[in-house]
Amino acid sequence: MNQEIMILKGQIADSKHRLKELDLEASGLIISIRANLNPYEDDITKLKIPEARVSMKRLYAIYNEMVILKKRVADMEEGLANG
């Protein structure tokens, strides 16, 4: 097997692994955000808005990284398929 193809397959595997890690972190952040922004709380000043904001900022960064990684994986897989 061509060494370049092996390298590309390794990069695809690494990117997919990173996507799984990011997805897991994002899931945890979503749970945290939901806990901080309890929709049943009548008094908005009791909500943990600052904590939720920090989590949302990280979640947005994860989202952007995942979009880039998914495009990169699709491009690499297409390049691999086209030989």
Summarize model confidence as the mean pLDDT. 94
What is the overall shape?
Answer: rod-shaped
Number of strands: 0
Query: Structural class, judged by helices and strands?
Result: mainly alpha
What fraction of residues sit in β-strands? Answer: under 5%
Radius of gyration: 19 Å
Task: Domain count, please report it.
Answer: 1
Listing every helix as H and every strand as E from the N terminus to the C terminus, the arrangement reads HH
Low-confidence stretches: none
Helix content: over 70%
The span between the termini is: 12 Å
DSSP helical segment count: 2
Q: Sheet bearing the most strands, described?
A: none
Write up what this structure looks like.
With 83 residues, this protein is mostly helical. The chain has one domain (3-38, 46-82). It has 2 helices and no strands. Helix 1 packs antiparallel against helix 2 (49-82). It is rod-shaped, with a radius of gyration of 19 Å. The mean pLDDT is 94.
What labels describe this entry?
83 residues; 2 helices; rod-shaped; mainly alpha
Brief rundown of the structure:
The protein has 83 residues and is mainly alpha-helical.
Layout of SSEs?
Layout: H1 3-36, H2 49-82
Helix pairs in contact: 1-2
